[in-house]
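User: I'm writing a short report section on ligand binding and want a predicted complex to refer to. Could you take this sequence and iron/sulfur cluster and write out the structure as tokens? A short remark afterwards would be nice.
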Amino acid sequence: MPHPQHLVNILTGIKGAMEMKDATPLAKIIKKAERPLLVIGPRALEVEIEGRPFIEYLVDIAKAANIPICATAHTKKKLLELGMTPESTYDVVEIVNALKDAEWKGVKGEGCHDFVLFGGIRTDLGNQALSTLKHFAPHLKTMTLCKYYYPNANFSLPNYKKEEEWKALLEGLVAGLK
Amino acid sequence: MPHPQHLVNILTGIKGAMEMKDATPLAKIIKKAERPLLVIGPRALEVEIEGRPFIEYLVDIAKAANIPICATAHTKKKLLELGMTPESTYDVVEIVNALKDAEWKGVKGEGCHDFVLFGGIRTDLGNQALSTLKHFAPHLKTMTLCKYYYPNANFSLPNYKKEEEWKALLEGLVAGLK
Amino acid sequence: MKGKRKKEEKEKIIRAEDEWEPIGHTPMPHVTDLRNWDRRLLETYKPFYAPFCDLCCLCTYGKCDLTGTNRGACGIDISAQQGRIVTLACCMGMSAHAGHAAHIIDYLIEKHGEDYPIDLGDQVNVECPNIRTVLGLKPKTLRDLKTAVQYAAEQLVHVVSSTHTGQEGDAVDYESKALHISMLDHVCMEAADVAQIIGFKFPTSVADTPLVDMGWGSIDRKKPVILVVGHNPASSSEIIDYLRNKGLEDKVEVAGICCTALETTRYSNKAKVVGPLSRQLFFVRAGIADVIVADEQCIRTDLTDEASKVGSVVIASSDKACRGLEEVSDKPTDEVVKAMVDKGEHCLILDHEKAAEVAVEAALKIAPKRKKEEPIDEKKAIELAKACAACGSCTQVCPNLLPVGPAIQKLAEGDAEPFKQVFENCIGCGKCEEACPHGVPIFKLMQAVASWDTWKCRVGRGPVMDTEIRKVGAPIVLGTIPGVIALVGCSNFPNEIDEIAEMVDEFARRKYIVVLTGCSAMTVGMRKDKEGKTIYEKYPGDFDAGGVVNIGSCVSNAHITGAAMKIANIFANLPLRANYEVIADYVLNRVGAVGVAWGAMSQKAASIATGCNRLGIPVVLGPHSAKYRRLYLSRKEEGDWTVMDGRKKELVDTEEPSPEHLAIVTESKERAMVMIAKLCIRKNDTQPGRQIKLNHYIDLYKKFFGTLPDDLHHFVRTERDIPMFFKKEVKQFLQEKGWKPKPVLSLPTLIGTYETEVPVEATIR
Amino acid sequence: MKGKRKKEEKEKIIRAEDEWEPIGHTPMPHVTDLRNWDRRLLETYKPFYAPFCDLCCLCTYGKCDLTGTNRGACGIDISAQQGRIVTLACCMGMSAHAGHAAHIIDYLIEKHGEDYPIDLGDQVNVECPNIRTVLGLKPKTLRDLKTAVQYAAEQLVHVVSSTHTGQEGDAVDYESKALHISMLDHVCMEAADVAQIIGFKFPTSVADTPLVDMGWGSIDRKKPVILVVGHNPASSSEIIDYLRNKGLEDKVEVAGICCTALETTRYSNKAKVVGPLSRQLFFVRAGIADVIVADEQCIRTDLTDEASKVGSVVIASSDKACRGLEEVSDKPTDEVVKAMVDKGEHCLILDHEKAAEVAVEAALKIAPKRKKEEPIDEKKAIELAKACAACGSCTQVCPNLLPVGPAIQKLAEGDAEPFKQVFENCIGCGKCEEACPHGVPIFKLMQAVASWDTWKCRVGRGPVMDTEIRKVGAPIVLGTIPGVIALVGCSNFPNEIDEIAEMVDEFARRKYIVVLTGCSAMTVGMRKDKEGKTIYEKYPGDFDAGGVVNIGSCVSNAHITGAAMKIANIFANLPLRANYEVIADYVLNRVGAVGVAWGAMSQKAASIATGCNRLGIPVVLGPHSAKYRRLYLSRKEEGDWTVMDGRKKELVDTEEPSPEHLAIVTESKERAMVMIAKLCIRKNDTQPGRQIKLNHYIDLYKKFFGTLPDDLHHFVRTERDIPMFFKKEVKQFLQEKGWKPKPVLSLPTLIGTYETEVPVEATIR
Ligand code: SF4
Ligand code: SF4
Ligand code: SF4
Ligand code: SF4
Ligand code: SF4
Ligand code: SF4
Ligand code: SF4
Ligand code: SF4
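Assistant: Sure. The structure tokens for the complex follow:
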């Protein structure tokens, strides 16, 4: 079990995220999902990857695989500007609270999601939200797209030291999902 | 950080033992120590490796590298029977309490030990005792010779599933130390 | 075991024969007496758990891995375990205030006698609404306050007991216990603050309390400086007295950090406020203080070590934080001072008068001997920053997730701005400097980017006056004052100064009533607008639309719940006495008050917030607060929003999720503001009132999110609820959503929707 | 803040005018009043920490990594953090007893009135030594017991408060607080047990209390079976009463697990003891009970789930453990019974009389409807064991580190012996079965290897009689009775039955006085010797050399500390009243008592042991107890063993490390026995007494280790200390060690070696 980026959120137990370094298997996993969801948080507005906002990569991913979006915090506004209408707007804990419920009808009213991707949530809050899902949502899998390791996810990217590696992974993912 | 054998003792932080699978580097590390000590606990009397008591392997190691012994619990009696007089007899927490003190004169009166090997201590008690040393004895390194992973040591053997692997390591160590 | 004798005993304690109000159903409630109310609340607002650790390490059976459906060796599951930890946290928080209360009341009894009367001036008749409502006692003297705290202490025993291995095993039952002990936290805070107000003669009947100087820049470092740190004004007021008696008030600087600062400025407006907890280590390391008097709570545990490094001496003065120091309470002052001056010895003095004398005498002698270093300038900082090897360790350990390393690298290149940002968001924990393998003196660097400006803080006011309640009661309940926003707790987290100030500004401008306590009350003053005015200079201090009120220190939080209770009492005429369920139900359904604990970090914040929750006041928390492990969230679409129509006595499905949550974490200040506006909505709003509330909700939502709120249809009951300004687009939106009118109730209540002895009639007066 | 008024208040509470004894220096001590005593103790017996986790997760600044020299974001270091967790654990433990005491006293006041007198029969005049010594109060009535518990509750507030973030920051100060609250634990236990004894009229003046049947085999499963679980006899005694009144005592089986079992047999010797906590899950799953009445403490948190699986119904009866059940205290009995019988509904009844009625009526109706499964036989077990795929999961999760998997594989091969061993060492946590991916019904398998034999347990005795103290006081203090060994706590760990029984046998045979409480008192009876006799049948029940005394339930632990205090009082004539330091000093230096908490696992055990430590009684713990994180160890060669010679009033370096440790973990029963014998050594031993003690120490050491003790020279003061039997070899050994004679003191004391108000004269009477 590798260490998360922020030691302050560290080691919580014996079930830790699988670290994913390659885009290809990740894309496969995502494609296999029946009802995926992409949760986009506000750090996606602030963080840039080689000059391009992280949120645009996330939008690319959503588009590539036709994944509905839940916009948390105030990300909705930017998404609209990018011409992407999120399927729902919640606080991150609210969407997690809904996802916990296997009977929930999901953001599209088609049933609860089975695979949830997260991007742009603070590491501490994100890891806590993922903790809720790890414990209480056995019916779904989670994955994070930020450049940090989130131990409470099922799949997580590693702690990237180099931006270009992160970028390559995200781009690879977009390509793989198309 | 691999998991310890007994999950009940698990994950305590971010500093975990280096898992050692090969005898050669281990022997080197031990040889480099100036004042090593071997602490032998009572499980060494009960556990057998392919019919031979674990304690005999430990005695072989002590002899090979001329390492003084601290016998904890009631192991002293058996050691005497094996013709090996331990340099000291303590409860495991007592020897650890002494080892914490960098000014201690050691079991031979020559100064505090810089490298301490443990064998035959219950996993839970052993890992707790190692925790004390991890936190409070920066002046020494610890290593365990039981067939379980002790996260609080500096060096630990892995969780062996197969006895012969453990046996091979111990025998390799004896050979390497001679 | 409710028992006849037990009842008699309670009646004796609360002086049942005093007929100021009829006695309600729950005088001095025992742990389980309000359990059904809690269960009803938590049916709508279910505990939401985010475990911070999958393991339990509370007994030697463990550690147990409780992941998912695993149970511990004692049989406990992960939900109950979270409830258990939350309960324990609330006990720790509550006991901090109960201990403070017990101590200060004894101290004041020693000074004034136990018959010393409670008199909060002619503007406050309902002097202790929490004690009245919870115990059923109308306290008249210090002794009565002591009685309230003793009762709370007895309850603490039972609640702590329930956290023992093999006791409670159900999450909701743990929450009920957390709610109970947190309700009692407000009782203890009230007892403590009221005791202090009367005992130290703090002002209570003026809204425009003085403005005092704030900031390290305001301290004259040439004078001897005594720094008081913590929460308990016993020692600091003795210091002021000693200075006054000796005519030294202008010769010695007394500056405070954390709540003791707020208390001290209530006692003397020559005292200065350094700032909140987040500035403690920074200020101590700056070496400005000659003597530091620490009392209790929020004191850095490495204080003595840090003080020694810069040659300050520490006097610990509380049994709660003895810090391993030798007690010298009974030694001659001269001897003690000598050891401090000559050998830099810190000490423990449990006698406050003695502590004060020693502090002043030592400061007078130490100051001339010390050469206090001036803060370094930017040039020097740039030079020092060059030692950074960009290893990233500092960034990795920062609890506030700040980009410390990159900012230092920028600083080394001559750009101080990023590091300035870091400092402003910094909670001052010191982890970064500790972690740096290259010895970069990060705190020293901060001196160069810190503003040495002086700000203003309005002195804390204490309880809201009855006259004010009378004036705002109707507008609040009916909704024409859109809400009361209480920024409480530590504000020791993300972008504290800017974010808190921005939120306060936004809501004060919108004519909400904004109240503040504790570190938040300081923080908010640490920003100036373009004209150089702080928030306190910009807005009046009245508890009225558009007012920004510094209620006081942390224990003043009880006056916030107290104000809500007083609305029920003074405006709606409901008796408070032992009438907790009715009052909480009233607040939940009719008083648009919202707590905001943006930077809450400690166990006290947990119990303060949880105490608000039991009373029906929702609380919005900052992002890192997910680490508290538990929220109370509803599911607006799946939830059951049925209430009793108090007039018609029939159940009505309102379909309206108001207030939507009881405890929620939001991710950004934008989201928080929108959530706050929404949480002010109450079932009881009049139609004009609802219009105003929705107007703000829509306006804020549009501002930050760009569209109409996507849940707006849930909060529009009839077309008359729609704000004029947005009429057209809202109508269109409602049509798209297939909206249908919903019932409007004038007396919504939960009483009658669950098993309780309280009759529905009790909700009407 | 010691204060005049505070003093007056205390004097009123303890009725200073009652002149039964002069008032000592610390009536009703506040948290810091005995701090110097603690610091003195901990100078010799330094806290030894073994962190169970490197992290702190107590506030939202964290998790903080505290490894080595790292500090938390609040400034705390790993040592202080350990002290903090230990303090919290002791608070949890103490509050469990304080809550129990508060509850049972109120319950009994309701029954008998608050003036109900304390009368423990003509053999006990010093009725409450802990309350006398700590508070300075000689309690006369139930009301006085309540007073003691209220005082303890107030102290709890301050101690819990100190664990809040930003409060105490020093390990030794935390330990002092843990010692304080644990001393009060003994006060609360004493109050609880004395209240129970007088309130339920338990026998107190007989040594040979009856023997009752023990073991699941002793229960007639054909009758309706009511199982009582927990610690609080309120409901179980009401059940007995109800059965008696209805003439049903022979028609319904009442069986108990944990301390409630011990209490219930004190009330009715028809009641049966199932066994200790470790058998709870096993017994519940066996489905023998029709109704389970759970009160408080030591109740599996999954009880209702497990009961449902086998068709038993649960009545929860304590506010401490409501378990999410609906409260039906006020519903008609018929209705409640019907829901239980028809729908298997569990419920919460907080009225004990009602709970009893419901329990009996429900049991009568449920029993005929249920077909209780017979335990499976070995053949069936072998078959079921074949499902095992040898995956090792069960072995990996066992908190007792048992080889579950391999034993099951042996069982599948037809060899039941290893699995039998596993069962005997099993603490019954259920983790193995939960972890098994192949659904092996491990608990069912246990039925086949469990002995369905019946054993005997001697009914608990309560306080040691004054007459007994008078008889043994001199021999104990002078050393001719080599020691008092108290096996306390849970004994829910390694090889409990065999190891505890073996230790008891060894020391009883050697004519030590052996006392037992709680689960240990049951466990020890669960083994028979070759003649089929249990320990209780083999040894007399007197508190005298070679006696094996079941003192009672967990709260009876106070009678063990109480007995030590009574020795000081009755034998040495020292006043107890508010005289804690003097009494503790006496016990430490002169009373050869040792506690053994072999299977201690919970927070209560932590506080019980820590309370013994403050009084100078060393405690030996089992190996897993290292997870308590803290021990008190001396370094015999490096330590300073100087004491005051009370007669000559001069400091003497005794060079003798006695007692060597205050709290130590030993690895094996062999080591434990040797350590126990050694820890009985006291500075005050006469020379014949020391000979006897050394004789046992040497004899045990040789038996288990094969040589003379290698630290023997430390404990031989003069040649006259050497036991006859070993004279020659010891002399030779001493010569090799370069031994020289050491001073022999007749009045060794720590008073005078540290700062205290107590004069040395106070140690002599
Ligand atoms: S309290 Fe329960 S879950 Fe926690 S360590 Fe003990 S047995 Fe395990
Ligand atoms: S002192 Fe400030 S910047 Fe440094 S780690 Fe703490 S919060 Fe982060
Ligand atoms: S830890 Fe020190 S060297 Fe490393 S990035 Fe931070 S300031 Fe630079
Ligand atoms: S609960 Fe906290 S202290 Fe316990 S194991 Fe988890 S992180 Fe460590
Ligand atoms: S209490 Fe201190 S060490 Fe623990 S998490 Fe909070 S800041 Fe970190
Ligand atoms: S029930 Fe017994 S054998 Fe199974 S895990 Fe628990 S202690 Fe081990
Ligand atoms: S977990 Fe089950 S299958 Fe695995 S070894 Fe144990 S009994 Fe056998
Ligand atoms: S001895 Fe321990 S396990 Fe047994 S009843 Fe008492 S506290 Fe519980």
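A remark for your report: The two ends of chain C are 32 Å apart (CA to CA). The pocket of iron/sulfur cluster (ligand 8) is lined by residues D 258-259, 276-277, 298, 489-490, 492, 518-519, 554, 602, 604 (CB under 6 Å).
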